[in-house]
């Protein structure tokens, strides 16, 4: 009989201990639940008013130079076509002089086009950086207000339940 009571008590202690061991991780998980959000940065860049404004600003800033380059490029093309027509009729000295002139025109055009691309790229980066900083401030504010532990910007799969892009867009568009 004594052995039976001992075994019964041991089984009861094990049962209580075992349930406590299994319950502890569940309680710990609930106490330390991680709140995760996701922001689709591509949507921010294409849909946010601030991003659209930056794109329009760049377009206005660089459209004049782009038109000048197009005019210069078309003139160069026309001059090359005219040279190809005239070349058989020209003497050697005239042909060499026109070739040099066209090469100088082309070199100038290529230089201006390269400078344009570099300037445009630098300005795009500046505007993008300003927008990214603004978007990051909005994301951080939402994360703090709504108690998110982490906000992801890229992932292989995202459940729409954690996508806060729309909230961020509304907050970005509300800021001026």
Name its key features:
176 residues; mainly alpha; 3% strand; rod-shaped; disordered N terminus
Report on the architecture of this protein.
There is one protein chain. A two-stranded parallel ribbon has the order 1-2. It contains 5 helices and 2 strands. With 176 residues, it is mainly alpha-helical. The longest helix is centred in the last third of the chain and has 54 residues, at 92-145.
Give the helices and strands, then pairings.
Layout: H1 2-31, E1 36-38, H2 41-47, H3 49-86, H4 92-145, E2 150-152, H5 165-174
Query: What distance lies between the first and last C-alpha atoms, to the nearest angstrom?
Result: 83 Å
- Number of DSSP-assigned strands: 2
Structural category is: mainly alpha
- Supply Rg: 34 Å
Mean pLDDT over all positions: 85
Q: Main sheet?
A: 2 strands, parallel
Series of secondary-structure elements, N-terminal to C-terminal: HEHHHEH
Q: Low-confidence runs (pLDDT<50, min 5 residues)?
A: 1-29
Q: Give the overall silhouette.
A: rod-shaped
Short note summarizing the structure:
This protein has 176 residues and is mainly α. It has helices at residues 2-31, 41-47, 49-86, 92-145, 165-174; strands spanning 36-38, 150-152.
């Amino acid at each position: 009989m004594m052995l039976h009571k001992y075994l019964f008590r041991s089984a009861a202690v094990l049962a209580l201990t075992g349930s406590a061991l299994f319950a502890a991780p569940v309680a710990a998980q609930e106490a330390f639940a991680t709140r995760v959000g996701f922001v689709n940065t591509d949507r921010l860049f294409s849909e946010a008013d601030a991003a659209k404004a930056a794109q329009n600003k760049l377009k206005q800033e660089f459209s004049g130079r782009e038109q000048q380059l197009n005019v210069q490029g078309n003139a160069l093309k026309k001059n090359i076509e005219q040279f190809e027509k005239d070349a058989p009729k020209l003497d050697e000295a005239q042909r060499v002089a026109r070739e040099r002139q066209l090469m100088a025109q082309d070199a100038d055009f290529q230089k201006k086009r390269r400078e344009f691309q570099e300037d445009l790229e630098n300005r795009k980066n500046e505007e993008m950086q300003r927008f990214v900083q603004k978007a990051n401030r909005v994301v951080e504010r939402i994360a703090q207000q709504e108690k998110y532990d982490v906000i992801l910007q890229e992932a292989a799969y995202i459940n729409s339940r954690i996508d806060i892009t729309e909230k961020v867009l509304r907050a970005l568009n509300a800021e001026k």
